[in-house]
Amino acid sequence: MTKSSPSWDWMLHGRYEGFCLTFTHGVTPAAVLRCYGADPSGVRSIAFPQVYEILQPGPDTSVLRVGIFREWTFCFETLGIQGIMPAVLATLSQGTQTVAVNLGANALHILEHWADGQPRERFEPGQASSLQAADAHPFWEAAERHQVDHQGLPAVLGTLEAVGDRIGGHLTADLLEGPLLSTVLPWTLPPLPSPAASLPFVHATETRALGPRIGSFRPPTR
Description:
Blueprint: E1 19-25, H1 29-36, E2 44-46, H2 51-55, E3 61-69, E4 72-78, H3 86-92, E5 97-103, E6 109-115, E7 118-123, E8 132-133, H4 138-149, H5 155-167, H6 173-177, E9 180-186
């Protein structure tokens, strides 16, 4: 197989370099903002080019932009990493599930999957020794399959493609550039609602030597 243009590659260039992105299933944008601890009075619908001019974020703040994609509510966070913090993920995933991808400008890249307030899977893209999971690790396996399907595909993009398998598509530039509910969030975290279990490290099964891709998981139904 040959390398093809992945669906998410536009997010890794220019002003999108360095962000935290969460997808939470079956909840409202307002509920997601509450889970982050955002003040609802400061939320405005703003297109991306005007965000920094209008909101004027200061030191020790994040910019949150929230929208809906199919059955998932996403939160695109710049200038911060609160969306990858256990307190936020535990709150977001109570009674549902949340997928979070942090692509830091400092090359710290992480995927986490939480369900019902507990972590289920965590890894650094392409780093088998980093894989932690409560049982199965479908995101890791899907990310590896995407790298088999597209030779030379960066591990980060394989991971984003695995997220796309779960949510049923990918964010487009038009969606992220357009008007979304936006606000500034101080770097303070909501309390952890319940103790989160630690995830054991897993000896990841090497999938890059396997045969043709055998399918991908589908978005959940409720």
